[in-house]
Automatic annotation (TrEMBL):
Disulfide bonds join C97-C101. Keywords: Copper, Disulfide bond, Membrane, Metal-binding, Transmembrane, Transmembrane helix. It comes from Zhongshania antarctica. It holds the Pfam family SCO1-SenC. This is Protein SCO1/2. PROSITE patterns: THIOREDOXIN_2 (PS51352). InterPro entries: SCO1/SenC (IPR003782), Thioredoxin-like_sf (IPR036249), Thioredoxin_domain (IPR013766). GO terms for molecular function: metal ion binding. The keyword Membrane applies.
Length: 223
């Protein structure tokens, strides 16, 4: 074999070695970059105190919902089983509410629209009426459709709703007087029920969309 052939063969081997080294470096770089973006986009686990700073308050232990039979805004029966399979954010208000309710629902709409499609898919936002005498399923459906077609409503027997609200630590009371234009005092906190149908805590009003989203994604990831 000539010296020239030997030199050519050695050069080819060196080139192959260089290519393999470059490919290895590129592969490692891709893995590191992918890991960085995954860590950056994945919700970070927050402590209880950090969650509170974001307006989220979690119970020490999830709480089982009491049995109830209510109606959704489509006139369908709603029971505790209806809460299973998705994360549920439950706001208590009413369609005749002059300010707090439309403001809160607008904030929940903005929050919902900021979620990734796969997160939206297992997130259900509810308006539970504290004024079931006036808020029929049809009234709720029409009202909520204005905010977002994915939002659902809850109405039904007053005592059932009151029991449901009490179990979620969301108080409300009818203001005396006012005739047919009476008002209902209620909390603007938003209760959180997990996909197992357990009450796990609430988001304290007033809501801040960025904080709500940050806390919600962390809770979903680790609780």
């Amino acid at each position: 074999m000539s010296e020239e052939s030997v030199n050519n063969g050695g050069a080819a081997e060196r080139q192959r070695g260089i290519r393999l080294t470059v490919l290895a470096i590129v592969a490692v770089g891709i893995v590191l970059v992918a890991g960085f973006f995954y860590a950056a986009t994945r919700a970070r686990m927050m402590t209880a105190e950090e969650l509170k700073s974001q307006g989220a308050y979690l119970y020490e232990n999830p709480r089982t919902l009491p049995n109830f039979s209510l109606l959704n805004d489509r006139g369908e029966t709603l029971t505790p089983i209806s809460m299973e399979g998705k994360w549920n954010l439950i706001f208590f208000g009413f369609t005749y509410c002059p300010d707090v309710c439309p403001t809160t629902l607008a904030q929940l709409k903005a929050f919902y629209q900021e979620l990734e499609p796969e997160v939206q898919a297992d997130t259900q936002i509810w308006l539970t009426s504290v004024d079931p005498a006036r808020d029929t399923p049809e009234q709720l459906h029409s009202y909520l459709d204005f905010f977002h077609p994915a939002f659902r409503g809850i109405t039904g027997d007053f005592l059932e709703i009151h029991r449901f609200a009490t179990s979620l630590n969301i108080p409300f009371t009818k203001v005396p007087g006012g005739g047919s234009n009476y008002q209902v005092e209620h909390s603007a906190n938003v209760a959180l029920v997990n996909p197992n149908g357990h009450s796990v805590g609430f988001f304290k009003a007033p809501l801040e969309i960025s904080k709500l989203k940050r806390a919600y994604l962390s809770i979903r990831e680790y609780h």
